[in-house]
Amino acid sequence: MFRSPPTTLPISRFSIIPRAATLAAAVFACSLAMPAASAQGVPASGAAAASAASDAASAQARDFDKRQTALDARTAENEYAYGVAEHNCYSKFFVNACLGRARDKMRDARGRIHAEQLALDDERRAAHAQQRDEQDALRRARDEQEAPQRAATAASNVQAFDEKQRQHALEQAQRGAEAPQHAADQATYDAKQADYQRKLDQARLNAASDAQARALRAQHFAQKQTDAAQHKADVEARQKQAAQKAQEKQQQEQQQQEQQKRLQQEQQESD
């Protein structure tokens, strides 16, 4: 039965090529940008071996990346070719048969690519295992060559620690020898402090006593002032009273004299 071909190709199949190319370019750029492992700190005899191993590993990694990029490109091309064939089959009379042949061709190519991918993965894992073994061997060799230096450093550290311990013991002994003098100095200082405290307390007592005495003197002076003012007021009152009595007496005497004069005049007039 004839089927009308679709108007558009499956977009997902044809979009594989740009994505695969981008991925391959990124992988290849990363492989070129990876720096070689630094051999700093490795003895001269091991530096050359480490550099050679690093160069070999870098070359092998570039080869793996190149082969992976090729497999990715073949996968994308296979998918694209199947998409084109599938699209073209819809314009033929025997559509199903055409689709089956296209699918079989795609699966056959996919199987070959998958087999090569498995082989590449096995080689990559083996290379990584070999690199780990070589790195372990180089590390062990470096450790063996650096063992005397580490032993010398450890011995120097032990010697420095022992010297610090001896210096600490010497300082302890010196402090112990100086302890009596420190105790005597402390006793003298404590005695001076106690004497100063006694003088300070006595000065405070004297100041309190003087303040109390001044307060009493001030109170006594104020009382004397009050008494003097009262005495003055009493004297003035008595003087005023005496003057008033004298004035009254004088007035009485004048009245008596005037009365006697009148009596005398009256007596003269009667004679």
Automatic annotation (TrEMBL):
Regions crossing the membrane:
none
Where is the region Disordered?
Answer: 128-190, 211-271
The UniProt entry, under InterPro entries, shows:
TAT_signal
- Using the record, list the residue span of the signal peptide; answer none if the entry has no such feature: 1-39
Source organism superkingdom: Bacteria
- Record keyword Signal present: yes
Residue ranges with Basic and acidic residues bias: 128-147, 229-239
Keywords of the record: Signal
Name of the protein this chain belongs to: Colicin transporter
Q: Which organism's genome codes for this protein? A: Trinickia dinghuensis
